[in-house]
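Please check our next protein.
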Amino acid sequence: MSKIYKTDNGKYRAEVPYKYQGKYKKAKKTFDKKAAAVLWVAETEKLKNENVDALGSPDVLFVDYFDDWVKTYKVGVLRDATLWNYRNTSQVLHRLAPGIKLKSMTRPVVQKLINQYGLEVATSTLQTFSVHITGALREAYADGIINRDPTVKIIVHGQTIEKKKNYLEADEYDALMKYLESKPWTKVNFYVYTALLSGARIGEIVALMTSDIDFKSHTIHIQRTQIKVLSGTPRPYLFGPTKTKSSDRIIQMPDRWFAALKQYRQENSNVNSDYIFGPKFLTAQTYSNNLTKILRAAGVNDNITPHGLRHSHASHLISAGVSLEYVSERLGHQNVYITQKIYVHFLNKDRVVQNDFAMKIL
């Protein structure tokens, strides 16, 4: 009989028993809230009745075991945006390892699978793939379904893929700003303008409400974002908490943005009074397609994505000598090391200038 009990550390432990080859085993998981534990038990009981092999048989196909493992242990616990990454891993497994059984996932087989996918993608993408499949295999080993841990000393090394430039240079940044300020404030134009001056993510900008704006102190409060569904696509009308706790932030905005906001509202009388970019929300693809047209009209040769506007904001500040700590806080990164890693190329440019300056002093 399934049971849920509270542990000494205040968490909730859920257990679902099942029978495999005449022996009783348990699927177990710990949750912060009892409601999540109850939901997991219900889903696991249903899964147990539908497919016992997926819970406890080494003869099940690994891709089927992986899909059921995600459904049992990840759905309802992780955000949809994170589950989307697991879905991508599942698609790769269906393509590269459709007929391999769980019991056949030995260390050499796992390494060859990772090596095979590593021929297609960069190391960072391959690392995510590796974390997903090794996580499932380690739990299969911990549950006694397989008798060896096949993930020991697995090597992850993908392709060295040169990333496409996804930010504007200083002159391009200025050209785009000048173009936007000379044109009517359409919803797309004002979104691009807001992204360049705030560094916020596309979902954070679309989710901005009038109540998030402090007209007296000239700040905006980033406290929600569009929610991605399992397809990986943001639902235009669905909003939720920011990506991380540190992403919930208050940032200063320049006077020019507030002047543009006033004009934007005057020129768009149908704009929802609650949401800055409502009531009819545009899709991320619409913003992306229109950004390409705007860049071309502004005489900017580089073609960047909407997320590249965030990078352009950061690079504009860093290149002007703004401290990395301030930029990190403004972007809502968890720590300054993340910012440093992402914008290392700008720091390297600045290092050359600093070297020249240091040599003059010495």
About this structure: The mean pLDDT is 86. DSSP finds 15 helices and eight strands in the chain.
